[in-house]
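The material for today's practical consists of a large collection of protein records. There is nothing in a record beyond a sequence line and a structure line. As an example, a complete record with its sequence and its structure tokens follows:
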Amino acid sequence: MNTGRVVVITGAGGGVGALLVKRFVDNGDTVVATDANAGALERLRDSLSHPGRLIVETADISSEEDCRRLAESARQLGGHVDVLINCAGFFPITPFEAISVEDWHKVLDINLTGSFLMVRAFLPLMKNNGGGRIINFGSGSVFDGTKSQTHYVAAKAGIVGFSRSLAREVGGDGITVNVITPGLTVTKAVRDHFPEEILQAQRERRALQRDEQPEDLVGPVFFLASDDAGFITGQTINVDGGNFMP
């Protein structure tokens, strides 16, 4: 079993990100957890049984300067990074004709450009390590399009193309790059902002007819970060209970 790794996780204060942090910390890894919400990071630290293996850094991943700062923090841990998980996301519901240019840029900056900036900042630390794992979060919405989320779906479709091309560029360095595409996952943010009829419709469309929970994503991500997934790269792993079967 892999243990003792340095793992970097964005969106670490969210429902999925926090569970990923706990899984890797409990595994004996050191986690650099970042989020734009400082309060969420402090609550995460307080919830862990092994907080000594957690480094929290508030950052805006759409900022090149912040990504460089995060990489420097990781560098000081020992000069290398084993796993980078780009989990941060922003998914507003806005009809297309109401999307401003500012809205468009903000959604693409967080959901697509942020992953580019994080990879660019941390890639030298993976090369120093002789290999590593990059896991990017996409979205199941790219398979059918989602009404009133044109900017978000465009960004997540970009994640798939970005990850495939990147996998070919860094494969020679022993680095794998894969995408997880969740279905609509019932985090607190989703429960607070999505009407029940949408959640019910999602349940009815799945082969496994229940809500998708944040816990459903932890195992697949942990697998892709492991040696067991060492020959898997450039792939999109769809985790949605059998809604889409691409």
Summary: The mean pLDDT is 95.
